[in-house]
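Hi R.,

Here's the chain you asked about this morning:
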Amino acid sequence: MITYNCAGDDAAEDEIDDCTIWQGVVYALKDGADAEFLPRNDEPAAAAILLPDFVSMLDSYDFGEVKPAEPLNWDVFRFKACTPEE
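And the predicted structure, written out as tokens:
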């Protein structure tokens, strides 16, 4: 679930529905275009993830004045780098 401007941890269910941008299954993509569920904590990370229909949900969500001028054109996010936690 991806939300935007929710009231916080004490938000009611209808408030969460109003601020939810996308909700669905996140798939791990492997070489060869195989889609699987995300790996467990002790398994190697996926090279990319797929958020089905994510872009169309972003385009239809009312962000008000902060909505990006250019529409997004991807649902796949590729791993680039990892920074250690401080």
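DSSP finds two helices and six strands in the chain.

Let me know if you need anything else.
M.
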